[in-house]
Amino acid sequence: MIKAVRGTRDLLPPETALWNFVEATVREVFRAYNFQEIRTPIFEETQLFARGVGEETDIVSKEMYTWEDRGRAASEKGQSLTLRPENTAGVVRAYIEHKLGDRGLNKLYYIGPQFRRERPQKGRYRQFYQIGAEVIGPASSGSDKPVRDAEILEMLATLLDRLGIRNWNLEINSVGNAQERVAFNDALRKALEPVAASMCADCQRRATTNPLRVLDCKVPEDQPIIEKLPRITDYLQEESTRHFADVRALLESAGVPFQVNPRLVRGLDYYTRTAFEFTHGALGAQNAILGGGRYDGLSEALGGPPAPGIGFAMGEDRLVLALQEQTPNIVKAPDAYIAPMGAGTNQAAIGLAKALRQAGLVIDLGDESFRLKKSFETASKLGARFILIVGENEVRSGEFALKNLATGEQTTVPRAELAAKLQAS
Ligand code: HAM
User: Fold this and answer.
1) CA-CA distance, 390 to 386, in Å (whole number)?
2) Which amino acid residue places its CA nearest to atom 18 of ligand 1?
3) Which of 231, 248, 366, 379 could bridge across to 337 with cysteines, CB 3.0–4.6 Å?
4) Is there a contact between 342 and 327 (Cβ–Cβ < 8 Å)?
5) 336-424, what's its fold?
6) 132 Cβ below 6 A of ligand 1
7) Is residue 318 within 6 Å of ligand 1 at its C-beta?
8) CATH of 15-176+236-326, one of 3.40.50.2000, 3.40.50.300, 3.30.450.40, 3.30.930.10
9) pLDDT tens, residue by residue, 327-370
10) Which residue has the CA at smallest separation from atom 1 of ligand 1?
């Protein structure tokens, strides 16, 4: 039997209703903050991620689905292509390619699948879905200002509240600008030299390739060593320090609760200054419901104009998991199951179903060949509130038997009053 590939999954009803609820809600909130939707391709040139996300990151070095495309001619070597592991690099590529800055398109959002070859577990998949947004533009558009950071974080707090996700926790940090990070990385490398050998295998590797990631290590034995390492905030110069202080002050005035976590580093290399993560208790090990930050140098790293930016991506799979813990089923049950009884009654039943649906009711329809017992069984399997019998007598008299499946109460209702009766009860 052929099954879905490891790390991928089918999203089935009724869960898909939660996905639709999440997407409809975020679209509404994004609109209120004047974001517009962008849809970029699912695969891009591999170079985009190598240069954008960073060659040394786990994502690029071990988790990408990359292949060589066929060349145009049999003799021609094909391009290296990659299924997108994230969407920020693609959005910034599109921003540069279509000169979106010149058109004032500075606030973009996206919803779609991403691909990472990670070890699958609850909340971690190889095809997963992100809902993200980016504010990017020339500095003259104010894209570098602390108020952008605070506005994004305030929007996220509003969004999670609107979705009904409670007990989230926001952690923020500043990872400095490119120069400050070089100084900090040097200091970290030096501090790690004498101690790296006694740390976990991942840390030993990161101590030379990407020392910043050591701060993210979760291995308990390594924690006492990590606690003593230098802190990024001590390497921030005046401008970055002020930017971070302004963001914190604005968050306080906007009433967004947060904690500063000086060890918060993100798994992508493009971040500058503000970095943040929202976590949620109910999710277990994969508790990051969303992450993001500023990436003031990304456009230039991809060959574009200077265009500071900030954004985030939420794991939609994880949002839905968190919601399921609270509201497992938001699907409205059918208001009525229509049971045509006897030859020729389908004709009246289909017309009646149409009229009731147009009145805004959820209606399911059987078939004239079904026996009464089967119709009742189907109606209760579907969770319908009422069963409406459309037999030959009813069609003739224009009055229909309507039975409440929860209480067993049965009434006879004239056709013209059916919609109102179903809406009222
Ligand atoms: P990220 O932290 O790599 O950031 O991913 C953002 C979110 O995507 C995570 O917090 C998590 O909820 C979800 N996620 C990541 N990997 C998986 C997975 N394998 N399975 C399920 N969910 C996952 C980014 O991708 C950046 N592009 C965010 C950003 C936008 N920064 C600035 N703008």
Assistant:
1) 13
2) 124
3) 379
4) no
5) Rossmann fold (3.40.50)
6) yes
7) yes
8) 3.30.930.10
9) 666 777 899 999 999 999 999 999 999 999 999 999 999 999 99
10) 291
